[in-house]
């Protein structure tokens, strides 16, 4: 993975107003008093203020580098909001451990930072999908759908009018597809639920691995950091693939529902 170019300090770090004001005051005083040496303390003061501002900027950069993501949980209900909050807290713990590591260990763990943040963000996306699927599934249950299918099938057999029979057949076909999607959504719900659990447990494991890396020798720590990155990458790929298939299933469900309503007219 290509390393990002380090951020440069803003120009105001060097051309800072406080330092320039002190330097200008020293210059004016030296000119009025005809004593050039007065400028020297002003230069020193400017240098000190610039150094302090530069260090403050470096601290802000460091905090930003290890800053955890804080997703908005307002659209989630319990227990989904609590599950995401747990993942976010674990993410913050991992990033704090990396930030406090020695330079050697921290450099090994830097590639993990964005991966850990991405998993915390993914936990929100998965929880939102779980909530959406739950809302869809709550509109009916498998038994009532099966009963409705049996009813439509009986109407197909009992209909005397050919046009009515054809419409019942179309309605039954749409209903059969709806039942298939309902069952698929149930399976998707379980898979997403398992994946969200996997994210939480992975973050817990990474937190422990980071602690182990911080106390290990260079060779052992390097091997451990590689395993951390590989496990995070593998999980990220699984999450992305699952999210795409879930979107397709939910869209198919909505399309079938619209078709069923049209067929009933």
Can you describe what's shown?
The chain folds into two domains: 1-65; 74-263. It is 81% helix and 0% strand. The chain has helices at residues 17-33, 39-65, 80-99, 103-137, 142-158, 162-214, 218-263. The two termini are 57 Å apart. The model is unreliable at 1-6 (pLDDT under 50).
Short description:
Residues 1-6 have low confidence and may be disordered.
Structural class: mainly alpha
Write the H/E string, N to C: HHHHHHH
Mean pLDDT: 74
Give the amount of beta strand, in percent.
under 5%
Please give the alpha-carbon distance between the first and last residues: 57 Å
**Which overall shape is indicated by the principal axes computed on the Cα atoms?**
elongated
Return Rg in Å. 31 Å
By DSSP (H or I, 4+ residues per run), the number of helices equals: 7
Q: What number of domains?
A: 2
**What level of helicity do the residues show?**
over 70%
Secondary structure layout:
Blueprint: H1 17-33, H2 39-65, H3 80-99, H4 103-137, H5 142-158, H6 162-214, H7 218-263
Helix pairs in contact: 1-2, 3-4, 3-6, 4-6, 4-7, 5-6, 6-7
